[in-house]
Amino acid sequence: EKGPYRHFMLKEIHEQPDAVSRVVGQFIDRGAGTLAVHTPLSFDFAALPRLTVSACGTAYLAGAVGKYWFERYARLPVDIDVASEFRYRQPPLEPNGLAMFISQSGETADTLAALPYCADNGQHIASVVNVEESTIARESGSVFPLRCGPEIGVASTKAFTTQLTTLACLSLVAGRARGVLSGADVEALIEALNRLPGALAEALRAEPDIAEIARRLTKARNALFLGRGSLFPIALEGALKLKEISYIHSEGYAAGELKHGPIALVDETIPVIVIAPSDELTEKTISNMQEVCARGGRIILITDAQGAETHGAMAAEIIVMPQVHPFIAPIVAAVAIQLLAYHTAVQLGADVDQPRNLAKSVTVE
Ligand code: F6R
């Protein structure tokens, strides 16, 4: 069932343009260019005091990007934690808040265990899941299905980008309901979302270049990923993806944290992957990149054509992603870090679909 693809992971990476297109269709009436939510909501976005998100691993990182969107576009305060910490923390929850659980499988033990605590503490329950018959889905008042088809590769790819797309759409629904976004704001953001499937297809065309860059990454023992704003969780996801399938030790950092410790690691042996598409924060991230360069670090810059032209000279290698609205840039950048991890792992001879020590669904604590 892998078709022409060598691994399920690669097939699933290539399914992303269609998968995100289906998600956008669940929230946007393309003809009218307006929001049209297909899932009946069991709560009112306008009345929520807070959104509390729990999830694990890559699903947690999707939620971490979502926090930037909900706070910015809906002025909705968001707390997010990994479910294994949340479930034992007993955090105080404001009544009538929304608790959201993000899970591809809908069966992850820690995520599932966090749910009853929220239900018992006066929260509405919503979930973003791929498996619609799953336990988490059954226990939720509102279910936002990813419908990206079975994800066989242990490393999550299309579930991640469909989770992101779902959260992006929901942040606009929330922003509209809460009176934060004007009609014109929503129109521009909807247009950005409508462009997403095409942008991901375009991003995939960088694969040969990325495979070539991966050839050099195979020599590294350690790698550092940097990002700022909504690209910070993508840096964390880049590090997670690379370490779990290639076994190269990698860490993700908020670009601004560099000088608070990790810069001590930088020398000519460490590739530093800087995720900096053009947005209002690019200059800040680029100045962190300069600090890395000054210490001999080897930069792999993930950016767009404009970023490559302005800041490319400093980078040893550049991965050029399509020029998109900053709103959807984290989803586009996700494709670049997935392909980078995939090709590095394949060239190292690793079993990318079935990495050592990992299970697809973590149903024990
Ligand atoms: C990493 C990965 C894991 C899962 C995590 C949560 O590539 O796939 O980190 O994201 O185990 O799984 P779900 O989404 O099924 O709850």
From TrEMBL:
Catalyzes the first step in hexosamine metabolism, converting fructose-6P into glucosamine-6P using glutamine as a nitrogen source. GO terms for cellular component: cytosol. Homodimer. One of its GO terms (biological process) is protein N-linked glycosylation. It is found in: Cytoplasm. It catalyses: D-fructose 6-phosphate + L-glutamine = D-glucosamine 6-phosphate + L-glutamate. Its EC number is 2.6.1.16. This is Glutamine--fructose-6-phosphate aminotransferase [isomerizing]. The keyword Zinc does not apply. Keywords: Aminotransferase, Cytoplasm, Glutamine amidotransferase, Repeat, Transferase. Residues 41-180, 213-355 form the SIS domain. The active site is at K360 (for fru-6p isomerization activity). GO terms for molecular function: carbohydrate derivative binding; glutamine-fructose-6-phosphate transaminase (isomerizing) activity. Its main location: cytoplasm.
